[in-house]
Amino acid sequence: MQPDIEASLMNVLISLYGDREAQNIVKYLLPELKNISPEEFQNILNRLSRHEPWQYIIGKEWFYDLEFKVTPATLIPRPETEELVYQILQENDQHEMNVLDIGTGTGCIPIVLKKNRQQWNVWACDISGDALSVARENADRNGVEVHFFQENILQPAERSEQWDVIVSNPPYIPVQEKKLMSDNVLKYEPHLALFVSDEDPLIFYRKIGEYALRHLNPSVGRLYFELNEFYAEATRKMLQNQGFKQVEIISDLMGKQRMLVARK
Asked: What is the DSSP string of the chain?
């Protein structure tokens, strides 16, 4: 049955994703399809053919070598976000710190940070209660303590905490770019976590920047963003205008301007 499963998967996936990505998807799917019935397998093929992400079908994705539950309430963790996490870990050592992730989704960022820096005190927030439920389950699955709370960062509650690191991978895709996106993202992933208005594409960066100026530790605080590469320079200038003294854009492994670190 295994060769038939592999061939059938490739037949569906190659037309949607191309040969290389289809092979990678099959590599992840095959171990999940052991002892599956023909009826169940046909259902999976039907869902894949409708562009449904394979991660939602099996209910999981791997990020920084950890397994995360994913549902349609959460974005699927991306490799470029792994680079953001790596950057934070490279620049911050093991000493005790307070860290906040804004717009946490699956919780992949704070969970990996806590897993690799046990002395850190890690918090994470999201506007979506459903996403927070998934994030809490992922923290339990991976054996770490992260403090989750619900928050609309566009209208944040007043808080007394001071953070040493604030990180966010916020919504940053203008609505006008929807037409350029593939169906597996557009039809299935949560638009709340993806899109911003064409009139104000930097709204989350601006609001989080304002929040960070109030709540970052004034001596050592750092703000980390994942970026829309097409707005990288505009984001840097905006943060500089807000009062951040050091704002650095960092390119990812593909040479795209996808990360930013700002210091007060």
From this structure: -HHHHHHHHHHHHHHHH-HHHHHHHHHHHGGGGTT--HHHHHHHHHHHHTT--HHHHHTEEEETTEEEE--TTSPPP-HHHHHHHHHHHHHS-SS--EEEEES-TTTHHHHHHHHH-TTSEEEEEES-HHHHHHHHHHHHHTT---EEEE--TTSPPP----BSEEEE----EEGGGGGGS-HHHHTTS-GGGTEE-TT-TTHHHHHHHHHHHHHB-TTT-EEEEE--GGGHHHHHHHHHHHT-SEEEEEE-TTS-EEEEEEE-
